[in-house]
Amino acid sequence: MKVLWWKGAILSLLVITLVCLLFLKIVVSTKDDWVVIEEKYFPLRDGHDPLGIKSGEKPDTSQRVSTCAMKFDNGHTYSVDCDEYLDYNIGEKVRIVSIDKNEVKLRRK
Question: Is the pLDDT of residue 11 over 70?
């Protein structure tokens, strides 16, 4: 009888944990996690400011962009690693994994 009670208690704790995790996933996860790439900025030559591929414009000077950058549909422009994100396309839906010193790490769908 005591063993059956312990099994029921453990099962109840596991169910409560599962419900809490599902609740956190639904509440914490927002639609802002996924963004669309609107513009990619690459320098034409070493030592020059980056220019937009689609628009030909320079990125906002208020946001420090060193070499390569991407502008997203949420209005932010972040620096990216030029070699790692070279094959990402404008209009592609990506997820921002982390932002460290205005440099972003992305993940594809």
Answer: yes
